[in-house]
Amino acid sequence: MKVLLAEKCGFCPGVRNAIKLAQKTLAEEKEVYCLGPIIHNEDVVRRLSEAGLKTVSSIDEVHSGTVLIRSHGATLEELDKIKRKGLKIVDATCVLVKRVQQIARTLNEEGYRAIIVGDKNHPEVKAVVGSAPDVRVVAGPNDLDNLSTNERLGVICQTTQSPDYFAETVAAILKKGFLELKIINTLCRETMARQEAAVKLCRQVDVMFVLGGLHSANTKKLAELCKKHNPQTFHLQNWQELDKRILSGKRTAGVTAGASTPDWVIEDFVRHLQEYSPEEPAL
Q1: Rounded to two decimals, what is the model's pTM?
Q2: CATH number of the domain where residue 139 is located
């Protein structure tokens, strides 16, 4: 089968840095804990777990050793709790996420109500909300009904959202007629480049595969965008999840991957696809 790989896909610099820090810390420290999965990819989390990284959901579970702050960041309350317990901190927060956190604090200091456009359940958004006083999350127009139009709003965005989603939400905010708006583009350019490359590729192939964790926001967004342009789009974590019947009658496949998808997963998937013959009966 002919396989085309998106020009931009796979690990972003923030994820590479987080994994590198995790590996370095595991080599130097006896007890290493991560507050939540270091990235949204089960294959990577499993490998680091086998190397000794323990994933916890709360600081209450850690009594000694080193705490690794994952790429999505942590709240000020969580960081303060780690320090009060006398635990060592290794910060693997993505620099772009740190920037969003700092902007939220600055907006608050300047008298704006900080608004972050995104998914309230995503760890990055939770960390931003917990990095400054009274940050509100707006997932859509309905969330604006709880805000007074007399407020001065400072609008930022979850880094992994799409430009279209941010633009649509900002347009809805503008229509509400708030007293004053300050809009800061906090979208990740790496994410935007991956989205553009994926959409371009999915239009050229019979079937499109988006590789990455099922809980990865940027990977889900890639799959969502590709699905709009090619209904034969499938979001999978790895080759083992593929139902071979999908390949029946297909001659050209496109492959892209989220920012937290490791190279070995992409390479393995592409190799198996290339070895597949569309003339073979699907098993």
Answers
A1: 0.86
A2: 3.40.1010.20
